Amino acid sequence: MEDTIAAIATAYGEGGIGIIRLSGEESKKILDRIFVPKLNQYTESIVNKRLYYGHIVDPADNQEVDEVLAVYMKAPATYTTEDVVEIYCHGSIVALRKTLALTLKHGARLAEKGEFTKRAFLNGRLDLSQAEAVIDIIRAKTDKSFDVALGQMEGALSQRIREIRQNLMDLLVDITVNIDYPDEDIEIITYKKLKKSISQIGDMIEKLISTGSTGRIIQEGLNVTIIGKPNVGKSSLMNALLKEARAIVTEIPGTTRDNIEEVISIRDIPIKLTDTAGIRETEDKIEKIGIEKSKESFNRADLIILIVDGSCPLTEEDEKIIEKIGSRNVLVLINKTDLGQTIDEEDIRTRLPEATLIKAAIKQNVGIQALEQEIENLVYGGKVKQEESLLVTNVRHMELLDKSKEAITDAYKMAATSEALDFIEVDVRRCWELLGEIIGESVTEDIIEQVFARFCLGK
Ligand SMILES: Nc1nc2c(ncn2[C@@H]2O[C@H](COP(=O)(O)OP(=O)(O)OP(=O)(O)O)[C@@H](O)[C@H]2O)c(=O)[nH]1
Ligand SMILES: [Mg+2]
Fold first, then answer.
1. Smallest CA separation from ligand 1 atom 8, residue
2. Would you report the helix, strand and coil content of the chain in percent, each value rounded to 5?
3. Exposure on the CB side of residue 411, measured as CA atoms within 13 A
4. Quick check: CB of 260 below 6 Å from ligand 1?
């Protein structure tokens, strides 16, 4: 028999209520020992999925611990598929600890991180990718990342993976029959047909892989660094995007001496935004260190926003910075256009042919929306946002998809050169197994351990 586990399921700290959760066969028995419900003539004993008012009482000394609501949920229609009990205490850490201690004293064991969800997985209610989505739901910081995680928990990714695996299985059956009974009266698989099926599967996998870069950004955020020579308006942009006066802005070049980092959400995309010290030659010791930090942040960035002063021609300082950008992702903001545009856009275009140029007057709040739009376009690759209901956000899934793509590509190459079916079968099977690991079929114990180690207590 599995242990009955217990944990505080709500966050540490003060709150209106705090919840103790139990799962396992002993749950109801433990509740009966420590909970004294206030029953009336309609409810003489505790029944499934009904909320009861009463008190947690230590049977050792009949001391009241807390005034609570409690519910018993009978297996199998529960979170873990086992018997589950939830006790709604006052949101006091003292009440929660005491109640938890009583459950442990009366037969429960303290749950490990993610153990409730792990049981849901092991008992077959969620597959592995669905279980993994639970932690993403809890950690989601934006509406979009929440929606993607919820979709994954409800099985959007699993369903797609199962579809691809079904195609692989059909193919495997065809191949195996041809290997084992080549003389029987069966449909003979031609290399032409093989190549077609294999490449269709390859496309399906590729399509999932292509959502990964957006998925990663939605999940982890985009590192954006604002750079430029001193006094072009970097800190002004930081403040405009944050909608608060976070960084000091003055007309003195060299105002910002240290990186300033903030996490913001632009069009629902989580962004780690860094304002940096203006890059120039300087003898000032502090400013020098600041400029070094600017360069480090520049190296880390997924996206660079280069600001130039549009009211003056491009200077040598600008050119030096532009040289470093090379082929990195960059948006160029031509600022201070309210003072009249003197800068020659061609000078920038010839040096950064891939870059998007945006005219702005940050002080007047001009160009900020265009910049936000460009960032959105970059993340979604210009595609309509609504189409992206299914995004691969998980690194483990992405690695497995990459490997399965390799396997199916190998199979294709062999079909193209009419190799023996046995060889092709090996790669097709490998692809099928790798995709199975995503949803937790053909997965090893230590992978399961690793997945649930990321969880919090009580989930
Ligand atoms: N006319 C005009 N002035 C601006 C505009 N944007 C910023 N400024 C001014 O330019 C000066 C420098 O702005 P900051 O935002 O401090 O520039 P910075 O790039 O952070 O400068 P450092 O931190 O010194 O590298 C300030 O006086 C701003 O008010 C604009 O669109 N038009
Ligand atoms: Mg500044």
1. 233
2. 50, 20, 35
3. 30
4. no
Side chain identity at 131, as an amino acid letter?
A
pLDDT at 17: 96
Question: How far apart are the CA of 250 and the centre of ligand 1, in A?
Answer: 7
Q: How far apart are CA 326 and CA 154, in angstroms?
A: 43
Reported as a single tens digit per residue, the pLDDT across 433-444 is 999 999 999 788
**How is residue 276 annotated by DSSP?**
-
Ligand sitting nearest the alpha carbon of 233: 1
For atom 11 of ligand 1, which residue has the closest CA?
Answer: 251
The kind and range of the H/E element at 150 are: helix 143-153
- The alpha carbon of 354 and the centre of ligand 2 are apart by a number of angstroms equal to 26
Ligand positioned closest to the Cα atom of 252: 1
Compute, in degrees rounded to 10, the torsion defined by CA atoms 89, 94, 98, 101. 110
The predicted structure's pLDDT at residue 348: 95
Query: Which residue(s) pair with 8 in the sheet?
Result: 20
Beta strand residue intervals within 217-318, DSSP E: 222-227, 260-266, 269-275, 303-309
Q: Which pLDDT value is given to residue 305?
A: 97
Ligand 1 atom at shortest distance from the alpha carbon of 364: 31
Name the closest ligand to CA 234. 1
pLDDT at 213: 86
Of 237, 242, 249, 334, best ligand 1 pocket probe by most atoms within 8 Å of the beta carbon: 249
DSSP-derived 3-state class of residue 352 = coil
In this structure, the residue with its CA closest to atom 7 of ligand 1 is 233
Ligand of minimum distance to the alpha carbon of 287 = 1
Q: How far apart are CA 18 and CA 185, in angstroms?
A: 68
- The CA–CA distances, whole Å, from 382 to 26, 146, 340, 352 equal 54, 21, 31, 20
Q: Is 253 in the pocket of ligand 1 (CB under 6 A)?
A: yes
Structural contact between residues 279 and 317, judged by C-beta atoms closer than 8 angstroms: yes
Pocket test for ligand 1, best of 226, 232, 236 (most atoms within 8 A of CB): 236
CA dihedral 369, 375, 379, 383 (to 10 degrees): 50
- The low-confidence residues of the chain, meaning pLDDT below 70, are 40-44, 183-187, 382-388
The Cα–Cα gap between 129 and 131 comes to 5
Among 391, 459, 372, smallest CA distance to 220 is for: 391
Q: How far is CA 38 from the centre of its chain?
A: 44
How many angstroms separate the CA atoms of 318 and 306, rounded?
9
Phi-psi region at 249: left, alpha or beta (left = phi > 0; alpha = psi -120 to 50): beta
Would you say the CB of residue 231 lies under 6 angstroms from ligand 1? yes
